[in-house]
Amino acid sequence: MILTEEQIDALKELINIGVGRASGVLSSMIECKISLQVPHIKVLTLSELNDEVERIGHGRLAAVKLGFKGSFAGTAALVFPPDSAAKLVSLLVREETDTPDLDSVRVGTLNEVGNIVINGVMGSVANVLKQHIDYSLPTYVEDSLEHMLAAGVAGNEIMILLAHTRFAVEEYMIEGNIVLLFESKSFGSLILAIDRDLRQ
User: Fold this and answer.
1) CA geometry: angle at 191 spanning 115 and 175, to 5°?
2) Which of 46, 84, 93, 156 has a beta carbon 3.0–4.6 Å from 80's, enabling a disulfide?
3) The pTM is what?
4) Dihedral of CA 87/33/181/47: which sign?
């Protein structure tokens, strides 16, 4: 599916609204300003994603995933390289990354961050487009991007919305990616809803 520049801009705006809300929630939680930015987004098929794996990473990545259904159906994930995940956790819990107890809070902390960011993004999509979406509980996984995505869908008839995300916390810059996998029919419904919104 080839999108117009207007449709791409609308998708980016929806995601930026969501990460803006999420950054406000995270900032109030730790009493420290967290700025989330989405410099660019890409819409890809599963086969086209292979070109992105080189940038995101071939090895084990840390991710929080949750499924969604309703007006749109698919899987959403917030994915971090291991070093960015460790840095984010240490900043949020105010402990050094080599602290022995850090592993015990790592999963819970990243799960909470992922849940806030993903719900912020999907909530903005649902609210702005006036659609209904139900979510599953978030789950934390460490795996390659290819395995994560393969487990999130059945078959190759999917569209992937990939949003590169930057977390700016104090003087630190942490990289991550928001990955939204839509069943092909659901992605078409999303674009139709965006088109209706653009015409209003």
Assistant:
1) 40
2) 84
3) 0.85
4) negative
